[in-house]
Amino acid sequence: MELWISVSGEKKKLQGSFKSVMEQIVDLGKDKELKLLSVHAPKKELRRLKRELRSHGRNLYETAKYIAKWFLTKEYRRVNHCLKELRKKSDKRSKELYQKYQEKLQEIEKRCDTLKAA
Questions:
Q1: Nearest 5°: CA angle at 78, between 73 and 81?
Q2: Which strands sit side by side in the sheet containing 2-7, from one edge to the other?
Q3: CA distance 2 to 80
Q4: Cβ proximity of 79 and 108 under 8 Å
């Protein structure tokens, strides 16, 4: 996805996955005026972005915050499910993975907290 936005009159180009671009908008746009200038994205992502923009009254910052939170919730649930499955196993590899997923879960919770504070 490639997105051109205006942050308080200054043009910025954001590139990457849909998730990363939305997180970048949340980071850049706190307490600033955002304008969407141009979007180059696959059809599915473009449809989702337009739908969310309509539902949030054309507010780009609120839309990006909502979508980023949705992605984090999705990732949180996936990691939590993996932890639940790994708890049942007792081999060494599963215990290592369990530790790795616990760290990942804490990282996701930190990012969720920063989104809520924004």
A1: 125
A2: 10-15, 2-7, 34-40
A3: 31
A4: yes
Residue 98 exposed, middle or buried by CB count within 10 Å (0-12, 13-18, 19+): middle
pLDDT tens-digit readout, 30-76: 889 999 999 999 999 999 999 999 999 999 999 999 999 999 999 99
**Global confidence as pTM:** 0.87
Let me know: does 39 contact 77? Beta carbons within 8 Å.
Answer: no
Helix, strand and coil content of the chain, in percent to the nearest 5, comes to 65, 15, 20
Cβ neighbours for 113, distance < 8 A, ≥ 6 positions apart: none
- Range 104-118 burial, b when 16+ CB lie within 10 A, else e: bbeebeebbeeeeee
What type of residue is 15? Answer: Q
- What are 24's two structure tokens? 């970048």
